[in-house]
Amino acid sequence: MSYSIIAEYVWLDKNKNLRSKARTLTSFPSVWPRWTYDGSSTGQASGHDSEITMIPRAVFDCPFRGERHKLIICDTYDSEGNPTESNTRHSATHIFANVIEQHTWFGLEQEYFLMNLETGRPLGWPQEGEPEEQGKYYCGVGSGKVFGREIVDRHYKLCLEAGVTISGINAEVAPGQWEFQVGPVEGISAGDHMIAARYILERVAEEAGVGVEYDPKPITGAWNGSGCHTNFSTKNMRKGTDDKTGLDWINEGIERLSHKHEEHMAVYGSGNERRMTGEYETSSYDTFSSSVAGRGCSIRIPRHVNEEKKGYFEDRRPSSNCDPYLVTSKICET
Ligand code: ADP
Ligand code: MN
Ligand code: MN
Ligand code: MN
Questions:
Q1: Is residue 86 within 8 Å of residue 16, measured between CB atoms?
Q2: Residue 180: its pLDDT value, please?
Q3: Which of 94, 211, 298, 333 has the greatest number of CB atoms lying within 10 Å of its CB?
Q4: CA-closest candidate to residue 181, choices 159, 202, 199
Q5: For residue 65, what is the DSSP state?
Q6: Which of 231, 297, 317 is the pocket-test mutation for ligand 1 (most atoms within 8 Å of CB)?
Q7: 176: left (phi over 0), alpha (psi -120 to 50) or beta
Q8: Which residues does 50 contact at the CB level (< 8 Å), separation at least 6?
């Protein structure tokens, strides 16, 4: 009995909200077993043929129950064995299979707001009216400047305990707004790590009775929205080749992206047009642009990358509520 393992199966429902349920495994399995759930209760199946199958894809230590217990990130299949509509991971794996030798790396910067569930406003906001204007909150230190640090910090530590590759956190530009970064993680695993990190954040916020808001522009007006900047590199970009520098490869990638702006915007998250006004560190929703060190453009080449002539670039367009499997596989495909 004491060797039993609790496996928390985590998946995305019809609206790509997280769902999870737990089961007991009486010994450590050689293969994590498939499991099913009632798809008619998640909007993913009809009542008469309701079973959806979960296939385990990534396993993390459960930071809530202790490392012997696991978080199992799954994708989902209908009764005929076809991927469900929200299973974007399935097609993404086919795209990544074509570029294995390029070892594509991703760094995903997840911005979000922590919400007071009683007022429906971000932490640190008054019941009515607005807080003092933006300026002192970004990477702020001290009372009246940051709100919810204990939640953010607990999330950070628990991600590390789980084995999620989280590279940092910071307070963002608006009060109650935060960011964590997942990466660098290779290929399809970037999406898996992001789903695990979002799951852990929801759970930590749940304990604190606080909401997590991923809408890209939850507060209208003179307040930053939330994005999911996606940093990307291939082996050639990181190292260069005999005939080209890494920066040449980066510029070639950016050139390709410039011809597919609309296709990319279509999978970069919903409501992004409310965020990408060209103001508040965003570029215009409709037009592609790139620059070294610029924050008002679609793609930024970090200054140090430009100087060293190798590294990665940042796609600043994806919104905070984006599907990481769609975003990473689209960049890879282009
Ligand atoms: P910003 O300066 O835009 O705020 P961050 O430091 O928040 O950037 O995030 C940068 C992310 O890029 C981190 O997650 C980091 O791990 C990741 N990263 C670093 N090097 C690479 C690389 N070569 N390829 C892809 N991602 C990378
Ligand atoms: Mn960042
Ligand atoms: Mn940021
Ligand atoms: Mn960034």
A1: yes
A2: 98
A3: 298
A4: 159
A5: T
A6: 231
A7: left
A8: 38, 39, 40, 41
Decide: 181 in ligand 1 pocket, CB within 6 A.
yes
Angstrom distance (rounded) from CA 263 to CA 33? 37
For ligand 1, atom 20, name the residue with the nearest CA.
184
Which amino acid residue places its CA nearest to atom 13 of ligand 1?
Answer: 107
Q: How far is the CA of 301 from the centre of ligand 2 (A)?
A: 14
The SS3 call for residue 35 is strand
**pLDDT for 100-141, tens place per residue?**
999 999 999 999 999 999 999 999 999 999 999 999 999 999
SS (H, E, C) 254-321: HHHHHCCHHHHHHCCCCCHHHHCECCCCCCECCCCCEEECCCCCCEEECHHHHHHCCCCEEECCCECC
Q: Say if ligand 1 is within 6 A of residue 183 CB.
A: yes
Residue numbers in the chain where pLDDT is lower than 70: 1-2
pLDDT (0 to 100) of residue 2:
66
Closest CA to 141 of 170, 113, 115: 170
CA 56 to ligand 2 center in whole angstroms? 30
Alpha-carbon gap, residue 48 to 35, rounded angstroms: 19
- Cα–Cα distances in Å, from 158 out to 120, 151, 181, 220? 26, 11, 14, 32
Closest-lying ligand 1 atom to the alpha carbon of residue 300: 3
Give the ligand 1 atom nearest the CA of 181.
14
Question: Is the CB of 229 within 6 Å of ligand 1?
Answer: yes
Q: What is the rounded CA–CA span in Å between residue 6 and residue 247? A: 47
Helix residue spans in 65-148 (DSSP H): 88-97
What is the residue whose two structure tokens read 């307070």?
Answer: 171
